[in-house]
Task: structure prediction
Amino acid sequence: MANYTVFLYRRAKLYGFSTGVFMGFNYQIAKYILGAANLKQLPDDEGVEVAFAGRSNAGKSSALNRLTNRKSLARTSKTPGRTQLINLFDIEDGNRLVDLPGYGYARVAKAVKEHWQKTLGLYLQSRNCLKGLVVLMDIRHPCKEMDLSMINWALEADLQVLVLLSKSDKMKQGARMDAKRKVMKILMDSMKQPENLSISTFSALKGDGVTNLRDFLDGLYEEKVPDPIEGTGD
Ligand code: GDP
Result:
């Protein structure tokens, strides 16, 4: 039993106690690996990465904190213009969450902005182990130019994309559904390859959409990880 527990912890995968059915990854064990100031500093291009992107203030840090059940895994208060980093977190050997720098700070110098846009585009299009992108957009201010560019780059690179319409608690149910429909239409009309795109409302505060986020991540990570309790005869 002791070995079994250690094994579960190390693998970071959760199984039903009596059923042995895979219940998803344990994102609470996310461990900070490093902050890369450029693509050369990233770990070897292997395993599975899923990246989180969004305009600054869209709720990306809050989403990561909610997912991992940590108060400050990704710092929620950031200083515009400071050195931007691609922050990586280990979920289990070779599976990583990637917190990309928020874009759209009005006060950042044009040259810095352009450098980071180029870096983000390159990361999305050249990183082989990157399998998915989660894009946070404030449900009240969605589909800005850079959001659409990020989604488009990712789809062109054959990534799975999950759009989270964040802070959904700021709207009533009807308005929330309307906003989601509008965003779906914009994305379906503007993206060349919308098949790999899904959309969910999301609230870090109330928990709306957290299951959709978990399912999306589990699906991408699980594909690469053999089931450790397969073949035990249960
Ligand atoms: P980031 O810049 O994208 O990492 O955004 P943050 O996670 O730092 O959030 C920006 C602001 O939006 C903060 O004041 C958060 O408290 C707030 N916020 C984030 N998520 C939610 C949410 O689900 N509901 C509400 N009401 N506010 C949120």
Notes: The CA atoms of residues 45 and 128 lie 6 Å apart. The first strand starts at residue 13 and ends at 15.
